[in-house]
Amino acid sequence: MDEQPVAPPLTYEETPEIPMAPPMEPPQHYLPPVKKSGSPVKAIGVVVAFVALFVAGIWLSGYLRGLFSSTRQPSTVNTGLTPTPTKKGAATPGDPYAGWISYEIISSITKKAVPGLSYKLPADVLAPICDGVGCLSQGTYLPGGTRFTVAARGANQALKDYRGAIITDANGKAFTTKTMTLKGLTGAEFEGTFSGRTVAGYTFSRMRGVMIETSATTSIEINHFTPSGIVADFEKDDTLFDQILNTLTVSANAIPIATSTPRPATSSGY
């Protein structure tokens, strides 16, 4: 028997190992960074700084407003002719003028006190001083912010007597006028709410005053007004003004003390 050739045994190649990719991580979702809340101390500091700037702004505004207003008014000249207080009122029970101070009216010609003319002001009101070197009138400020002035006029004074003329301001604007009496003395009350000017150089937005006859040829003017650009409590000062008028004293000594031709002007204007 013939031997059949034996086929060589089959060989197998091992399939090479395929490297495995690393396992995929799950996708990461982007999250915006979380803002940390500000420090409470820092927030309080910002609020305090804002409030400080706000208050500073209000103060600066008021300062500038007052500065600009003062530039529109004439400078009050202290000539050394300040009315001298005569005496402080006695503390009489029930006396509404207890503690008030008495002042005399200065003559614009002699620069001395006019005999027999005086009035009182509350102790907390500054003493009146001359409005300018000529001392045509003397003035101060009442608690509400209005300016109070007094002036002698007529024969022997620089300002003429009001009788026989229309009472106006320095620009010729007429006041509303009516007759009145004060402590038995004849006079005229005048008032106006308009932009006006006094002969002393003050501009005003409202004024009220009186002219009181002290003799056949002389009189006195007493008024108060709101200076332009100034916020004042006119009504409050007007009540005080009436009280001041009630303190006016005109004695028999209130007579002409010099000879002069009066100028055609008054402290209120005409």
Blueprint (SSEs and pairs):
Blueprint: H1 40-71, E1 101-106, E2 113-121, E3 129-130, E4 138-141, E5 147-154, E6 176-182, E7 185-192, E8 196-197, E9 203-213, E10 218-227, H2 234-245, E11 249-250
Antiparallel strand pairs: 1-2, 2-11, 3-4, 4-5, 5-10, 6-7, 7-9, 8-9, 9-10
CATH arch. level architecture of the domain at 101-250: 3-Layer(aba) Sandwich
Terminus-to-terminus distance: 170 Å
Strand content: 25-35%
Count, helices: 2
| Helix residue percentage | 10-25%
Superfamily at the CATH H level of the domain at 101-250? Mog1/PsbP, alpha/beta/alpha sandwich
- Could you give a short account of the major beta sheet? 8 strands, antiparallel
Shape: elongated
By secondary-structure content and strand pairing, the structural class works out as alpha+beta
Helices and strands, in N-to-C order? HEEEEEEEEEEHE
Return Rg in Å: 44 Å
User: What is CATH's topology name of the domain at 101-250?
Assistant: Protein Transport Mog1p, Chain A
pLDDT < 50 runs, ≥5 residues? 68-72, 75-81, 86-90, 257-267
Count the E strands.
Answer: 11
The CATH class of the domain at 101-250 is identified as Alpha Beta
Mean pLDDT across all residues, rounded?
78
